[in-house]
Every structure is written in C-alpha cells, then in structure tokens.
Amino acid sequence: MSIPYRSRRPQYLPAVGSTFAVLLLLTANCSLAQGQQAPSPGNAAKTDPAEVPTRGERTPREIKYGDWRKVCVKAAGAKMLCRTSITGTFDTGQTAVRVDLIERVDGGARLQLFVPVGMYLQAGVTLSVDQKESYRIPYTWCLTNACIAALPADPKLVTEMESGRALALEVVDSNILSVTTSIPLERFGAVRHGTPTQTLDQAVDE
C-alpha cells in the first residue's frame, strides 16, 4: 500500500514522542491527545461512502503481513492488559500498517490502527470484513512516523473478524485517493483466545 510520507505534522492532531514500545500496550489506558474526547462507540457504526467522496483509487504497494501475535502485560498495580496484533511491512522493512485489539481482563476492548502520516485525516480509516458492512474509525493522534485511528471495539466487528477471512482496511491519501489493503484473519480468533506469545510482568511508565 503506497502511502506518501509527509514530514509536516497535521496541526489539528497533536504529535507525541515516538516511544513505540510503550504505545503498543498502553494506548488503551491513555486519553486521546491533549484534551480531545474519545469518540463514542456509535461513531464506529457502518459508514456512508458518500460522506467522504474520493477522486478514485490508487494501487497499493505490496505489503507482507506477519502472524497475529498476543502479548500481555501486568503493570504494577494494574490488571492484565493484552494486545492481539498483526503488522504489515513494505519490502523495505518499513512498517506499513498495524492492527491492535487491546483488551483488559476485566472487560473493555479498544481497536487501534497505525498507518503512515500523510493521510486525509477527516476520512478516518474504514474497515470491513469479507465485504460486509463498513465501520469508520476516526484518527485520534499522530506520532512523527505514524498516525493512529482508534475507538472502543465494536463487539459485532470483533465477532466478524473472528469468523472472517480478510479484513479490508481503506484509507484516503492526501490526494483524496482511496487505498485499500487486505489483512488475513484466519488465525485472529485462535490467537486472541489462546496463550499469549509473551507475558510481561513489570512496571511500565506511561
């Protein structure tokens, strides 16, 4: 998926330091960037394609996806937090896309998506499983090398992901062209409910 890099950060989405490892597991604990309110789950309802008219489609670069992985962390004084994720990379090794489902053991889940900077932010990210109904996930904040779209996970979408074959992720670039990549879902459900690939038992500074 070819997504242009733009070094200038969007002025209306604050950037934070690119401490990527901490962000992997603790984004679900944090409020949205600098005073922005978290969107309500209703904002993730099926989208109307007419909401963000595009000028056409752009052929994506090839993305190679790794395996779904589950990592859990038990920070001091906090309950277990687990992240089921998959990462796609370009042939250069640069991260192109990452999908995280972050869940607490006592309930509550958050879906977050990482894409490169340079997107048309008002469009958000659109997801659909096996060409079923679409869900719009709004952008919430940006790092120096990636923008993040996140929202409390819709239980229906998670169920569709567990039984589905492919997750279509669509973004709109700065030229108002849509770019779509297909993410494999075959192992998502088994990994989500299975034994974590790694469990960390340590204090993590937010």
Write the layout of secondary structure elements.
Elements: H1 20-26, E1 64-65, E2 69-74, E3 81-89, E4 95-104, E5 109-115, E6 125-129, E7 134-137, E8 139-142, E9 147-152, H2 155-163, E10 166-172, E11 178-184, H3 188-193, E12 198-201
Parallel strand pairs: 2-12
Antiparallel strand pairs: 1-3, 2-3, 3-4, 4-5, 5-9, 6-7, 6-10, 8-9, 10-11
What does this structure look like?
The protein has 206 residues and is mainly beta. The protein has helices at 20-26, 155-163, 188-193, and strands spanning 64-65, 69-74, 81-89, 95-104, 109-115, 125-129, 134-137, 139-142, 147-152, 166-172, 178-184, 198-201. The strands form 2 sheets. Strands 1, 2, 3, 4, 5, 8, 9 and 12 form an 8-stranded mixed sheet that branches. A 4-stranded antiparallel sheet has the order 7-6-10-11. It is globular. 33% of the residues are buried.
Kindly summarize this structure in a few lines:
With 206 residues, this protein is mostly beta strands.
Determine Rg (CA atoms, Å): 16 Å
- H and E string: HEEEEEEEEEHEEHE
Low-confidence stretches: 1-50
Could you give the count of β-strands?
A: 12
List the keywords.
disordered N terminus; 11% helix; 3 helices; eight-stranded mixed β-sheet
